[in-house]
UniProtKB/TrEMBL annotation:
Protein name per UniProt: Secretion-regulating guanine nucleotide exchange factor
Gene3D superfamilies, A to Z: alpha/beta hydrolase
Transmembrane segments: 21-37
Keyword annotations: Membrane, Transmembrane, Transmembrane helix
Amino acid sequence: MAKRGAKLKAWPGLQNCRVPVVVTCLVVILVFLILLFCNNGKSPDSSFGYPIKKWNSFESVQFNPTTELRNGTDVIWQIPSLPKAVLFVAHGCDGRAANFWDRSSSCPNCIGLPEERLLVLHALARKFAVITISSAGRCWTFGEERLIVKNIIQWWAQTHNLESLPLVALGASSGGYFVSALATNLRFSSITLMIAAGKFDQMDITVNYPPTLFVHMPKDSYRQQKISEFIEVLKNKGIDAAEVECMEFPLSPSFLADRIPGMNQTVSAKLFELFQVKSFVDGNGYMKKDGRATRWKEALRERKNLVLDKSMVQHVQEELNLAFAYHEMTSLQSEQIFKWFESHLN
Ligand SMILES: *[C@@H]1O[C@H](CO)[C@@H](O)[C@H](O)[C@H]1NC(C)=O
Ligand SMILES: *[C@@H]1O[C@H](CO)[C@@H](O)[C@H](O)[C@H]1NC(C)=O
């Protein structure tokens, strides 16, 4: 709500307007408000309808993960005091376990991407033990890798006396397809498939298949169509299935600083200004294209007085993709995701 207040304050003062201008101003404000509320009414799950959490919103939770090598891959995990469930998280293509955790003395090679880290912080704050594993290759594979990951999760749960707790999983993109398949090898209480439709056209689904939440970006209409299809398939088999739609939202001068640890307001505002000058965003601050298709890094190189720390390029890229809402990891829907997990713990 604070964000929206700030936005409204930025409207030009009316006292300088002549009468026709006053009328125009009022009409513009009215249209803006109507659009705002229509948008909220049509899609109550949209990111834009929810307050956007800041990177440091979880002061009560601290990253203190353990990193180890198992079966040739890295496993990074953290167990809060009195855990109530276990969450396995699977990254997308080109991702890895290190993306989910901030760099610290306990994980010097960790990256802490903005959405991944907030997802883990949400989980830890809600007393989920979190285990992340890197895929062997660029993306997940669906043969032996399923057995390896199943064994790693079981071995780890056993080692830390977590076997009796409910086990849930969240996978994004390639990780979502992987989790949908892993759910036939390992018993999950429920799963969340993010920006992924799942492998439901290639598996035999039984009534024991876990309740499945699809968190997706409808702008990706091909996936949206598959997901609608698969929700019907699951429901027809008596399996609980639901979806959360993630919509695009506008950038603001403070957005990047709000989401990325170590980025200050000055750099954030200058980047936003650059995006405006280069027309990467429209007049309302919405990304015109996916972040990956936007030549913002090239534009930045031309700006001698604006230097972005190299370690933050990936972080900015992720937030731009998120705002465009076509295909990206998202933590904005964490409330709905963890409600789903919590309402299906057994
Ligand atoms: C994974 O590693 C463990 C311990 O080193 C080993 O016992 C197990 O056979 C390995 N699993 C696979 C599928 O390679
Ligand atoms: C913001 O960060 C930039 C780059 O890291 C730095 O040069 C600048 O001094 C910082 N500004 C403030 C106000 O902290």
